[in-house]
Amino acid sequence: MDPREAREWMRDARTNWTALVIDSPAERLGVEGFRVGDSSTADDDANRIWQENSMDAESEVVHYGALAQRRSFVLVEDDGKGRPRMLHKSARQVVVARDPHNPREIAAGLYMYLDDWTGKSRATLWTRDEVHEFVSDLTDVVFPERAARLDSWDVWTLPSGGETSGPNTLGVVPLVPFVNRRNRRAGGYAEHEDVIPIQNRINLSLINLIAAMKYGAFRQRWAAGLEVDEDPITGQKIQPYKLDIKSLWTTEDSEVKFGEFAATDLRPYVAAVGSAVQDLAAISKTPPHYLLGQVVNVSGDALKAAETGLASKVKSKKREFGESWEQVMRLAFRVLDDPRANDFQAETIWADSESRTVSELADAAVKKQAAGVPWRQRMEDMGYTPAQISRMEIDRAADALNATPTTDPEPVSLRAVRDARQQDRRTVIGRDDVPDAA
Q1: Residues of the chain with pLDDT > 70: what percent?
Q2: What are the angstrom distances between the C-alpha of 116 and each of 139, 308, 373?
Q3: CA 315 to the chain's CA centroid
Q4: DSSP 3-state assignment of 103?
Q5: Dihedral angle over CA of 429, 430, 432, 435, nearest 10
Q6: For the segment 119-151, what is each residue's pLDDT rounded down to a tens digit?
């Protein structure tokens, strides 16, 4: 086989099923707001900070980075105008050291990046009390490669000669890690790491399928009793016919017989790919219909049952990532010197991660109303964002004020007088009403 042809087959056989393994939970992780303290509504200041930093879009990048690269980070700092700035940082740029006595607390953090202005690499090191800046001539500054060589780094100084080290005004390391599947490994575990061997098996099966289609699906012909001429120079047999789907083999010799071999059955190759894909779906808890696309005459209950594993996995990630987002928001309030920076009752409001129809949500809301669930909670369960719920509250109040009663209501004062007269009414028998003794 020509090596060039083999490389083409390997390129054509790549079917990235692992991307679906990452996309499936990532698309169901949506942050809609934060509750702070004992409030039952979303915090307006937290929402303003969130919108100022375009975190509706950036949060998706943070989640995808954690799912694909084991972990991702958010840097919270002062933007120079007294407002908090939130920036996503890749795991290839950031490394943190945890407190050995409290692994949830960050003792130090290092962020490295390439400075486009100077063409040099820079690094910022945070501890709880100090901030240090470094510079290097290295251009490939990613962990855990050459960046670990400390002898290539120097203390960065300003053009005026002043040092860039100083106190950490926040008092904490401003890096918040988002670690995926921390229960598997302390440093994180990518969403697709379990299924990489299965992905390789699928690619191999597809290469075999392409080879079978190339050489086995087209029926090979044969000829018996045919005299084959030889090359007078090389002495090798000369190919009498060209093997082509558009060519017809003929001969003048009536004794020659022609025939063809049976085509290779491709169904075993296709079945091997399908079996591997099912294994991938089971291990990664990805709904099979996401991968195979076979949804024919399937009820809604069956689809919901198929997505149960994915929904459970997403809920687990919401608990872990929710703690990180709450820490991000506390750091943002710390930049503002707001007392809410020490409020540990904050709660992340997530979008509903399960697939439900509008009729199902409406029917559940009616039943919850009968059970005494407050209106705002019912609207949140129906999937409305905190901003939408706030607008609906204003619209409900306006509709109530603008509503015109069908009849003029009776004043309260007149209603009270009427009720008092009915209670004091007595039966009076007049003279004319006395019955005749006769």
Answers
A1: 82
A2: 11, 47, 55
A3: 12
A4: strand
A5: 30
A6: 788 889 999 999 998 887 766 665 554 444 444
